[in-house]
Design brief:
The structure is a homodimer. The first copy, chain A, is of the alpha/beta class. In chain A, the strands form two sheets. In chain A, strands 1, 2, 3, 4, 5, 6, 7, 8, 9 and 10 form a ten-stranded mixed β-sheet that branches. Chain A has a two-stranded antiparallel ribbon with strand order 11-12. Chain A has helices at residues 20-31, 44-50, 98-112, 130-138, 189-204, 215-236, 240-243, 249-269, 280-290, 322-328, 335-349, 354-374, 379-383, and strands at residues 12-16, 35-39, 52-56, 60-65, 69-71, 84-87, 119-123, 147-160, 165-179, 209-211, 296-298, 306-307, 389-391. Chain A is built from 13 helices and 13 strands. Chains A, B: This is 6-phosphogluconate dehydrogenase c-terminal domain-like protein.
């Protein structure tokens, strides 16, 4: 292992966003040989006093587990030089851009150790989320980070007991890659080295981790479920299971596939071919979710041929996508990374996305209220704001079909 | 005036569905010279005892107004021969088909007076709602009604005080026409006569009524708002005003227009040309609603050119389409007449309707719960029904984009 920023054996990790996912990756990295400083917000006091109870089928039971340090502010960690800043907080740039959440910690870190900038690891949902941090922190005239590592995690973990306990099953895998995706280009040696160290930490900690030169493709894979099954759940405000009834599938399945096809259209127009994101993913993602139906699926018009049901993988009847859970709890949703970044790309490339547009149109008024509330603004007054300006120029429209107005 | 079914001066009207719209048309027809028998459900006792309080900008204040008779069952009206059966109840055929709601009254009526069948007038939302009643009541081997009159009403009326009071503004207009639309074909004399009498009753009662040979076109006009602005409101669960903010219009307007364009596609594929349903309706319906925005609408990129705001027509900030009000109150929605009949037609004609499909996919699971509740069924148990069968044959799919399943 190469010398760390502090010159000691154990690399220093600053972990931002100590929710369910944050706790699991704190545990993995610390067990793998890192010192982990977790920045907590609402659960700071209890985690500091009592630690956190981990109940994981994969990682075991650990009552009162503690990261190396718990902190609330940049000042509390002023003496440490960090090797990695791992971001597990929600990506809601309409509340606060990723770079702004990290900036105070990164500035403090640079003051402490200007010669060695840390690697930023984004374990977050969505597509096209990296560029903002890359511009603001890596490509800035006064850079604060050495590079952006984009990471896609498959994990289902639940934070319970007001942030004192997490429950986790068996599924946990993380794919990491440098942003922008190097593809066939060589990665500068120090960055490759630093990424290798991160992968080794996670492996030693028992995590399933994979490094790739094409993290962008992995993000498209991951988001395919979130926008399609997740999008219809969000519009319906219902658990996935309710979309999988014999009486609802004739309505939901076609739409779910249609949303995925819109995404494939965007992917192809972006120059990403079948070898990087295959259209067969549609069947995989549809089939995987459909297998959780309780209904019998008759394949042909013959009355006695049924598709085998994967009875063991029945989803929990109340499972809802996290974006719907956020909506129901009155928290700002990850609308930007999951839906709006995709639509932005579609508009730029001239791809029509009627279903995604409708989800955005329906979710945006809600998001606006949630964001205003978070910012302490008066939503009701802002709805009636007579000075706000809407540009009825087609170019100003976010969705595909613009209004005609005599000019 | 021709002799009525009872041979007396005043035609007999049976009015089913004594909600806001039903009260207004009871008032108009009774004032215009008919005897009105209103069939009440939840508000029977109070209406019978105290009448209903009408507060209408157009028709004035009438406290304790009463229809000629109030009834609950067919038996109570066994001695009357009806000239008109006016249907103002919600059209939710997935709970009960229109014809089934009318049948017991029509059978009793025919027993009483087999020689003269009444005219059925459907004052209901949606498209393609008439055929079911036409088949079951008019074209049946033992017909119970002389014909179906389809009617489109523009009216905003609110039922308050648990069905004891209605509030109504100035807007009230009714367009009526024989189903199927005769267009240039002659209408049989007795039907024409009976329809004329109905129009005269409404006119004498102070209503704005118009007869047309093409009621089908009028239904498409009316539904255009409901499916577009109404559809996005339904998905968003927000009042119209929240779709009209400077920050939400870039998302909502394009989708609203897109939904309308899907409808125009269906209309044209149905053989209904520009002269019957004009595409310019899109601009009218978008513009009419947009004029209720509080935001300034900048037409060009020039910083100082704004569209004039119709400050007087500001909609009430909390106005919601009735389908959303039904959802919020846990009542089955008019999903079939407003959305699903349109999509059925689209599938039959091969028209792609991605936005309407998504609305249907999201609303169907909700509707299923509301209908099951209404029927006294156990929704939670039915979700987990392992015997229900889903036909994964593309022809069985309601929406455009069917699943691929190895067969």
């Amino acid at each position: 292992m190469t010398p760390t920023a502090n010159g000691n054996e154990r690399p220093e990790v600053l972990l931002l966003g100590f929710g369910g996912v944050g706790v699991i990756y704190s545990y993995i990295l610390q067990k793998g040989g890192a010192n982990v400083t977790a920045v907590c917000r609402s659960n700071y006091e209890t985690v500091r006093e009592n630690g956190i109870d981990i109940f994981s089928d994969k990682f075991g039971e650990h009552r009162g587990w503690r990261p190396t340090r718990v902190a609330r502010s940049p000042e509390e960690v002023a003496s440490i030089s960090f090797d990695y800043i791992v971001c597990c907080f929600k990506c809601v740039p309409d509340v606060k851009p990723n770079s702004e959440v990290m900036r105070p910690f990164l500035e403090m870190n640079k003051r402490n150790n200007p010669a060695r900038l840390p690697m930023v690891v984004l374990i977050q949902n969505g597509v096209d989320i990296e560029e903002e941090a890359h511009q603001a922190l890596v490509q800035a005239s006064d850079p604060l980070a050495s590079c952006i590592v984009s990471a896609v995690s498959w994990i289902a973990v639940t934070l319970l007991g007001q942030g004192t306990r997490i429950e986790h099953g068996l599924m946990e895998s993380l794919t990491v890659g440098l942003y922008p995706s190097p593809l066939d280009n060589p990665v500068p040696a120090p960055l490759a080295e630093s990424l290798r160290t991160f992968v080794t930490l996670a492996e030693n900690g028992g995590g399933d981790i994979l490094a790739t030169n094409d993290i962008e493709s992995k993000r498209w894979h991951k988001i395919m479920w979130n926008i399609s099954w997740g999008g219809v759940c969000l519009m319906s405000r219902r658990p996935v299971q309710e979309l999988l009834q014999a009486e609802t599938m004739p309505y939901t399945l076609g739409v779910v596939r249609g949303i995925m096809l819109e995404m494939i259209g965007i992917v192809r127009a972006s120059g990403i071919g079948e070898e990087r994101v295959s259209v067969s993913l549609i069947d995989q993602v549809v089939g995987m979710t459909m297998s959780a139906t309780r209904a019998k699926i008759r394949v042909r018009r013959s009355p006695d041929v049924f598709l085998e049901r994967h009875t063991k993988s029945y989803a929990r009847p109340d499972f809802k996508p996290s974006i719907l859970v956020d909506l129901e709890n009155g928290r700002p949703m990850e609308l930007e990374p999951i839906f709006l970044n995709m639509i932005r790309r579609a508009r730029r490339l001239g791809v029509d996305t009627p279903r995604l547009d409708l989800i955005a149109a329906a979710a945006k008024p809600i998001q606006l209220e949630l964001v205003r509330k978070q910012r302490g603004e008066d939503h009701a007054a802002l709805i009636l704001d007579e000075e706000a300006i809407y540009d009825a120029n087609p170019n100003e429209n976010f969705t595909g079909c613009a209004p005609t107005l005599s000019s």
